[in-house]
Amino acid sequence: MPLVHAVNVSKSFHHNEVLKGIDLDVDAGQVVCLLGPSGSGKTTFLRCINQLETIDGGRIWVDDDLMGYSDRDGKLYRLKDKEIAAQRREIGMVFQRFNLFPHMTALQNVIEAPVQVKGESKKAARDRAQSLLDRVGLGDRTAAYPAQLSGGQQQRVAIARALAMQPKLMLFDEPTSALDPELVGEVLSVMRELAADGMTMIVVTHEMSFAREVADTVVFMDGGVVVEAGPPADVIGNPQHQRTKTFLSRLRSEHD
Ligand SMILES: Nc1ncnc2c1ncn2[C@@H]1O[C@H](COP(=O)(O)OP(=O)(O)OP(=O)(O)O)[C@@H](O)[C@H]1O
Ligand SMILES: [Mg+2]
């Protein structure tokens, strides 16, 4: 089974059907970039994967674990909050806004969850945090508070913090869209390295050059459905559907 196996996922908010039967498979070590216009359901889908939202229909497996439910003879039973929290710990998430704890240094931000949630020793957590901060190019800024770091640096700390939990899967929701243009590259290059090291990633992004170079699969969503999915050379380079073409040309004109 693929590391992520989502089948016919649906989700409504009140009467607004936001996801209308999404299928997605992601093999271990692969990178999927998710594109689509505002409101198409990208964030909602990521939040369903790690059970920040409950789903109304369909099923999502991550590493053979049915997310949020146990299946007894074809009937689904909601897992206890504690069990869902345990599933969620296996998945790292990086948001558009960095969401660092403002009163903690970069190092403290990174060791917080391993120590508090996993009960790791401070020494072990600190050693790994140091090497993770080295890896994202911030080995010399471990004592800085978020307010003393640029947006790009904060986002790299946020990535290190997610990695500190040793996730099986990383979800990124427009991780560079709140950054000044000159800071985008440093975050994308950390994500590139992560992908090259074999991390399984689902990335909502409108950075087309990143998607072209790094994604194994590009998925274009619109109106809560997957319109088109495939290798970037197809979906970005030679889209088949009018909605994809329109979206990409609008994106290009915004860029120029
Ligand atoms: N908690 C919520 N309650 C009600 N409606 C919601 C909620 N979250 C999202 N929605 C609605 O679901 C739809 C999809 O939203 P979502 O945030 O998933 O889109 P998106 O593709 O991530 O858009 P963007 O590119 O703007 O981030 C929108 O119509 C949105 O208003
Ligand atoms: Mg979104």
Question: Can you walk through the features of this model?
Answer:
Keywords: Amino-acid transport, ATP-binding, Cell membrane, Membrane, Nucleotide-binding, Transport. The protein contains nine helices and twelve strands. The protein has helices spanning 42-49, 81-88, 106-116, 122-135, 151-163, 181-196, 208-214, 232-235, 242-255; strands at 4-13, 16-26, 31-35, 57-62, 65-66, 69-72, 75-78, 91-94, 169-173, 200-204, 217-222, 225-230. The strands form three sheets. A six-stranded mixed sheet has the order 8-9-10-3-11-12, sandwiched between helices. A hairpin with a 2-residue loop joins strand 6 (69-72) and strand 7 (75-78). Helix 3 (106-116) crosses helix 4 (122-135) and helix 4 (122-135) packs across helix 5. The radius of gyration is 18 Å and the shape is globular. Bound molecules: adenosine-5'-triphosphate and magnesium ion.
Instruction: Please bin the fraction of helical residues.
Output: 25-40%
> How big a fraction of the residues is strand?
25-35%
Secondary-structure element series: EEEHEEEEHEHHHEHEHEEHH
Regions with pLDDT < 50 over 5+ consecutive residues? none
Mean pLDDT: 95
Topology readout:
Elements: E1 4-13, E2 16-26, E3 31-35, H1 42-49, E4 57-62, E5 65-66, E6 69-72, E7 75-78, H2 81-88, E8 91-94, H3 106-116, H4 122-135, H5 151-163, E9 169-173, H6 181-196, E10 200-204, H7 208-214, E11 217-222, E12 225-230, H8 232-235, H9 242-255
Parallel strand pairs: 3-10, 3-11, 8-9, 9-10
Antiparallel strand pairs: 1-2, 1-4, 4-5, 6-7, 11-12
Helix pairs in contact: 3-4, 3-5, 4-5, 5-6
Adenosine-5'-triphosphate is lined by residues 13, 16, 18, 36, 38-44.
